[in-house]
Amino acid sequence: MRPFRPGWVPTLVVLALLPGLIALGCWQLGRADEKRALLAAYAERSIEAPLSTAQLQQSDDTAMRRVHLYGRFDAEHSLLLDNRMRDGQAGVELLQPFHDQPSGLWLLVNRGWLPWPDRRSPVAFDTPTQALALDASVYVAPGSTFQLHPDPVGGQWPHLLTAVNPTQLWQQLAREGFAHELRLQPGPATYRLDWPVVAMGPEKHLGYAVQWFALATALVLLYLYFGWHHKKENNHGRRHHSTGPA
């Protein structure tokens, strides 16, 4: 049987890269499982009866819960979430404080997406002045939003932001408010509502996992091939040298 001698350098390269490639593939598989669980939870909770704000405050698991609200918007303290794209068009999402009258609780409600094609002009929107009965769902961000620099605090309203932080808003306004964003469901006072449940579906994570595992497999096959091929070339070189002219 031909001996296997790949050499120190290829061995060190494989030992350095192979665990990382396998770990990345396993991480993508884990992310796919998380996204499937998230989609299943969303489907389950989308058919549940809405909670009242009092029930919402007592719940330990508020993510994606449907909530029934009754009250008024605060038109003076609007937030515009920047860098929101729809169909290749730039725009913002409009978020406004909403005072729920039965509970007295303030909630930050996302009314949907608005186009903003010309930044020389302010975003055009209106705010209902009458009391409204609304249904919304709690949005709990999966992690911190990446920002090149933090959003400025204070300044003229409406505030243009790149990340939503309800707790910071309630501290700024000296109000008692709910800690997470609520996204309106179709009804009065809404703009364009088409938020994806997850930014990247489980099938994409599976695709990335396959790519990482394929790279790991290719690395091992190349290592095995050159381990035997290198020995064969060395033997051929020695035979050629021994039959040369004296």
How many structural units, i.e. domains?
A: 2
Radius of gyration based on Cα positions: 29 Å
- Tell me, briefly, the overall form: elongated
Order of helices and strands: HHEEEEEEHEH
Helix content: 25-40%
What is the mean pLDDT? 86
N-to-C terminal Cα separation, in Å?
A: 32 Å
Helix count, per DSSP?
4
Strands of the biggest beta sheet: in what spatial order? 1-3-4-7-5
Strand content: 15-25%
Note poorly predicted spans: 240-244
Going by helix content, strand content and strand pairing, the class is alpha+beta
In short:
This protein has 246 residues and is an alpha+beta fold.
Characterise this structure.
The chain is an alpha+beta fold and 246 residues long. It has 2 domains: 8-37 and 205-229; 51-139 and 153-184. 38% of the residues lie in helices and 23% in strands. The protein contains 4 helices and 7 strands; from the N terminus they run H-H-E-E-E-E-E-E-H-E-H. The protein has a 5-stranded mixed beta barrel with strand order 1-3-4-7-5. Helix 1 packs antiparallel against helix 4. The longest helix has 41 residues, at 202-242. It is elongated. This is SURF1-like protein. It is found in: Cell membrane; Membrane. The chain crosses the membrane at residues 206-226. It is a multi-pass membrane protein. Keywords: Cell membrane, Membrane, Transmembrane, Transmembrane helix.
Helix and strand topology:
Blueprint: H1 8-45, H2 53-58, E1 66-73, E2 79-86, E3 89-100, E4 106-115, E5 132-139, E6 159-161, H3 166-173, E7 177-184, H4 202-242
Parallel strand pairs: 2-6, 4-7
Antiparallel strand pairs: 1-3, 1-5, 2-3, 3-4, 5-7
